[in-house]
Design goal:
Blueprint: E1 6-11, E2 17-18, E3 26-27, E4 35-41, H1 43-49, E5 86-88, H2 90-96, E6 99-104, H3 115-127, E7 132-136, H4 140-152, E8 155-161, H5 166-174, E9 178-182, H6 186-200, E10 203-204, H7 211-231, E11 237-241, H8 246-260, E12 269-275, H9 280-285, H10 310-319, E13 323-327, H11 329-343, H12 349-363, E14 372-377, H13 385-392, H14 402-409
Parallel strand pairs: 6-14, 7-8, 7-10, 8-9, 11-12, 11-14, 12-13
Antiparallel strand pairs: 1-2, 1-4, 3-4, 5-6
Helix pairs in contact: 2-11, 3-4, 3-7, 4-5, 7-8, 8-10, 11-12, 11-13
Bound molecules: pyridoxal-5'-phosphate and zinc ion (ZN).
Pyridoxal-5'-phosphate (PLP) binds at residues 112-114, 140, 207, 241-247, 301-302, 348, 350-351, 378-379.
Length: 419
């Protein structure tokens, strides 16, 4: 049952260290504010155990098992998450005026990035002998956890805001979870899930209190680092949307680890993008005076009023030399349409938010002409077709008569004969 590569859990607020084999969500030294724990590793042990070829062949994130905070002999609960492609995006690059690649994480088993984290936490819960896992979610974490709980044979209970997109409520139901649609905001659903955790002792996957969640998210950084090493070029920017801030924090931690281990020669600057209506991490990073706790954006996956991982997210932005910016909902929808129509990649609004962010960063001169950008599209578009329709407008309605097609396209030329 060794987990010798994990040394301590260190509080991001006060620095107190805890034994990684205790189940601790947050540092008990603080009331109200959460002292989120950072998982610390012994990189000599990781280096010794990690003998994978850095050849760019990444079947799943478990290629990086020596980096993940699970016991060596843990039975892994996986649907082959991660290993997402790094795609050239020549058409989008032209539109944005900068070389852009896409790390397409909408291709994960449940359609979003969060599978990287769910696989790790369900693996841990199962190996701890837990049979009930729970989380609060704007939708995707719930769907993801439900899928992995089903895979691992655990019961799953999830707390979502009652106005989550229909698709996101249907998905966990199909995976057999109990779905508690809370009449209230995400923040209220979150608080209720925390109360339930305390009362019933269920295993809680909430990314911001469960320190192991971010750890699974690191694999996107490890992968991009490996893919960069294979391409022979580290991108200048790695771009994410931010809700609670765990995703960008994990991505940075992973990339930096590969750099520290000398597997790759440089690191990218992290660009975090938030919606204008849910801007708390951005406001904190830029030291704005009043930080709005409302969350008003159609990009539901990043509609977070009180982000739980602001400290880790700001640290990622700062350490990497990056920054954050805001985009409007209209920009996000335009980004969704642009991504789909230029590259055939269909992302949900939060997944397309980085596209809007890069456009904005280009206009403001934050990203220079000669730089290279990697956008991570974190969620698949079919998760939220309502927003997609707002982005695109409606289909043409036609009667089944060729004249109606003619009305659209004019008199057609006769099809050219082959001979
Ligand atoms: C959860 C989520 C995010 C944001 O991740 P955080 O860790 O909350 O910052 C972005 N995009 C999608 C699709 C998500 O589901
Ligand atoms: Zn503390």
């Amino acid at each position: 049952m060794a987990m010798e590569h994990v040394t301590t859990l260190e509080c991001t607020l006060c620095g107190t260290e805890y034994d990684p084999d205790q189940i601790i969500y947050t540092c008990p030294e603080h009331e109200g504010v959460k002292g989120i724990l950072e998982v610390e590793y012994d990189y000599d042990v990781i280096h010794d155990n990690f003998d994978a070829d850095l050849d760019g062949n990444i079947r799943s994130q478990w290629k990086y098992k020596p980096f993940l905070p699970v016991h060596d002999d843990a039975e892994v609960v996986t649907l082959e998450e991660g290993g997402s492609s790094l795609l050239d995006a020549p058409n989008l690059s032209e539109e944005l005026g900068v070389t852009t690649l896409i790390k397409d994480d909408g291709r994960n088993p449940t359609g979003c990035f969060k599978d990287r984290a769910s696989s790790v936490s369900v693996t841990k819960a199962k190996n701890d002998g837990r049979d009930i896992v729970i989380c609060a979610s704007t939708g995707n974490a719930a769907a993801s956890l439900s899928g992995y709980a089903a895979r691992g044979g655990l019961d799953c209970r999830i707390f979502v805001p009652g106005d989550a997109p229909e698709g996101k409520l249907a998905q966990p139901l199909v995976y057999g979870a109990d779905v508690l649609a809370v009449n209230g905001s995400y923040d209220e659903a979150y608080d209720l899930s925390m109360e339930a955790t305390e009362k019933y002792g269920w295993y809680n996957r909430n990314a911001a209190v469960n320190p192991f969640q971010v750890e699974g998210k690191r694999t996107v950084g490890l992968e991009l680092a490996e893919q960069s090493a294979v391409r022979g070029e580290v991108p200048d920017w790695f771009v994410f949307s931010m809700g609670d801030g765990c995703t960008i924090a994990g991505a940075w931690k992973g990339f930096r680890e590969f750099y520290d281990l000398d597997y790759v020669e440089d690191t990218p600057k992290m660009l975090g993008v938030q919606a204008e209506g849910a801007s708390a991490i951005h406001d904190t990073f830029h030291e704005h005076d009043d930080i709005d706790e409302i969350a008003d954006t159609l990009a539901d996956s990043i509609a977070v009023g009180r982000p739980r991982n602001t400290i880790k997210a700001c640290r990622a932005l700062k350490e990497s030399g990056g920054t954050s910016l805001l985009v409007s909902d209209d920009d996000i929808l335009a980004g969704e349409k642009l991504l789909g129509s230029t590259e055939g990649i269909y992302a949900e609004p939060a997944g397309a938010t980085p596209v809007a962010g890069v456009k904005e960063a280009r206009e403001r001169g934050i990203i220079a002409d000669d730089e290279t950008v990697v956008i991570c599209t974190t969620g698949f578009g079919l998760k939220d077709t309502e927003s997609a329709k707002q982005a695109t407008g409606d289909a043409y309605r036609v009667d089944p008569r060729i004249e109606e097609v003619n009305d659209l396209y004019g008199e057609a030329q006769p099809a050219a004969a082959d001979d």
